[in-house]
Structures are given as C-alpha cells and as structure tokens.
Design goal:
Chain A: This is Sulfur carrier protein ThiS. The structure holds two protein chains of two kinds. By secondary structure, chain A is mainly beta. Chain A has one helix and five strands; from the N terminus they run ββαβββ. The chains are: A mainly beta, B alpha/beta. The A-B interface holds A 7, 26-28, 42-48, 51, 53, 55-56, 71-79 and B 39-43, 49, 62-70, 72, 75-78, 81, 87-90, 92, 102, 105-112, 117, 119, 226.
Chain lengths: 79, 280
C-alpha cells in the first residue's frame, strides 16, 4: 500500500495505483480505464499535481508515487 | 423568452412579435440563447436555486471551481445538467493571472467546455477587477483556445483592449460585486456597448429588474445576475422579474426612446377645448 494526499486528506491505495484508481476511490465511483464513469454519467472533476493539470485521458498512465499531493476540483456554486 | 411570450394574450401581437425576435447571440463559437446569464452563488439550497433558474429562463449559468469536498458533494453541476443549462465556469477568487489560467484549465478539464468567465480581482474588500492581470489572462486563454467572457471595469478603453486581446465577450460591472447598487456609470456602459464588436454583458451590481432593463436599454447584449436573484427574499419571483426586465429593456431599446427635453410638451391638442369662462 502507499498513501497519497488528495486535497490535504490522506488516501491509501495499492502500490500500482494510477490516478484512475485514486479518483475512483475518493469519489466512490467505478471508472473505466479512460477515467469515465462506468454508469455513463459525467465525472465533473479535474486533477492537478504540482500546479499542472493532468488530463483525464492521461490518468491511467499516471502511477502516483507515495506521498504525492493531488488537487481534485469540481464545480461548486459561485459567480 | 419565446416560451414566455407565447403565453401573452393575442392583443399584444406586436410586442409578442418583437420579443420573439430576440435572437440568440454568438459568443465566440457559442450560441447564447437567453440574454439573462445567471450565477449560482449565494443560493441557500439547491431546491430554491433550481426554481430561480427555471423561472429566469436562463440557458447559461456560472459556477466556481473548488476542491472536491465529499461532505458537500451535492452537485450543482448535476443540477445544471439535469435542467439542460450550459455551465460557465468562472475564475472567481483569483488575484493573479497565473491562478486564473490554472483555474480555467481545471474548469475546462472538469466541465468539458471552452467557455470561461475570466474574473481576476484586485483586492478582497472592493472585489474590483485587476485589469492588468485580467488582460494577461485573456490573452493567454484566447491563445489556449478558450472562449473568454471577461469581467472588467466600466472603462471603455479597457474594454477595447480586452476585445483586441481575444475576449469573446466583454462584461463590465454595473457596480461592485454583490452591492446591488445598479449601474453607477450608465454613460460608460453605453459607450462600451456602442463601440464593442463582441457581445457586452453587464456583470455585477444589478440589484433589481429595472436595472437589468436599463442595461439592455443602454445597448448591452445580455445581463449576468447572481446575488440579486439568489439572495432575494423570493428567488423564483426575482428570477422571473429579471427575465421580464431583460425582455422589456431589449424591446425598449429596439423601439427607440423619445429624446429627453427640458421643456414640457403637451400630448393633447390645445384646439377645441371647452372653456368654462366662455360659457358664463
């Protein structure tokens, strides 16, 4: 197991976990390898690491290191 | 708007016709159907927000982009999707071009839209736009293929600069965010509307329906309201009032107001009066 930080919260995932695994676990949704929800809906979230957006299409390639700090954002009321 | 006018009585025929002609406008590649853009900020709950949005007839509504929080995961994105309302992510809360560009890119990735409401403020007290940073963001985002709708001051020179930098719409404030002070400088707003070749949207400061109408009478293409509706005692009624205000202002602008005069001008004929003193 390894531990990453998503929005300052610690999340434990298996050693080979990619961003698809991390996001799926935090959102508690089943995701396809390309990051889309298996239920056909839209996810409505984005990921950045070190201030760089990681496109959803790159999540499955991105194995996260132990201790990686991840920002996970979504739409909220505003504006 | 068409939906609302169809319920009018037939004897309002000419007004119905003109209102029905309130055509969509183009913001970059995007077709904006309703001239009333709504914001979701300030609503106390999603149920009252939904009623207000539906009553307003809006087709485009802003959201902010923030860290996902599982404890408040009731999704405004899901609500807008269910209502068939397009989402306009903003960069609210950003003080620098760098933050705003990152926020815009996160929004595009999360919400799958090139539309972005660029909002870079100078300080937390006034929430007035930082036009230097705003100009930088606009240039960068236009280069990155975004459709930037840019919140700015009511400075006509800045509006032109933003347009040249790639703004797909210029959105001057009527007055500071959340104040409800209405349009403090109608002369400038009219100047911006007259000179711009991209759509002009009054964004911020609108407090009530007559001010939304005024924005349209001044020649703006659309109005953006958030707090005025979401923080009204009855958000649904205010949403409807804003819709009617925008429609009334659009019609009045198209109809052509009479010139202002300094002296009175009677509208009844003076000839043919019956004078009491002639009969005594």
């Amino acid at each position: 197991m390894k531990t990453v930080k998503v929005n300052e919260q610690q999340v434990s995932v298996h050693d080979r976990a990619t961003l698809v695994d991390v996001v799926g676990k935090v959102l508690d949704r089943d995701l396809e390898p390309d990051g889309r929800p298996t239920d056909g809906g839209r996810l409505g979230v984005a990921v950045s690491i070190d201030g760089q957006v990681v496109p959803r299409t790159a999540w499955q390639e991105r194995v996260v290191d132990d201790g990686t700090e991840i920002d996970l954002v979504t739409a909220v009321q505003g504006g | 708007m068409e939906q609302s006018t169809q319920t009018m009585a037939p004897d309002h025929g000419s007004a119905t016709g003109a209102a029905a002609e309130m055509s969509p406008i183009r913001v970059g590649d995007y077709e904006l159907t309703s001239r009333l853009i709504m914001g979701t900020g300030g609503a106390t709950d999603l149920a009252s927000l939904e009623k207000a949005l539906v009553a307003s007839g809006t087709t485009l509504t802003t959201v902010a982009v923030r860290r996902y929080d599982p404890s408040t995961s009731t999704s405004v994105f899901a609500l807008l999707e269910r209502l068939g309302i397009d989402v306009l992510p903003n960069t609210a809360g950003c003080f620098t071009a760098r933050d705003a560009v990152l926020t815009a890119n996160l929004a595009r990735e999360a919400l799958e839209t090139n539309l972005v409401k660029v909002e870079v403020v100078a300080d937390e007290d006034t929430l007035l736009p930082d036009v230097v940073e705003t100009l930088r963001v606009t240039e960068t985002l236009a280069d990155q293929g975004f459709t930037p709708m840019v919140y700015t001051t009511d400075d006509p020179g800045v509006a032109i600069r933003l347009e040249n930098a790639g703004a797909a719409a210029v959105m001057p404030l009527g007055s500071p965010i959340g104040t409800g002070l209405g349009i403090l400088n109608p002369y400038n707003i009219e100047l911006i509307a007259n000179r711009a070749t991209v759509p002009v949207v009054v964004d911020a400061g609108i407090g009530t329906a007559s001010e939304a109408a005024q924005a349209m009478e001044l020649g703006c293409d659309a109005v953006l309201v958030a707090s005025a509706v979401t923080r009204a005692r009855d958000p649904r009624s205010m949403g409807l009032a804003m819709r009617r205000g925008v429609e009334a202002g659009y019609l009045a602008r198209a109809a052509g107001r009479i010139p202002r005069r300094t002296e009175a001008l009677a509208s009844s004929p003076s000839q043919g009066r019956v004078r009491a003193e002639d009969r005594i």
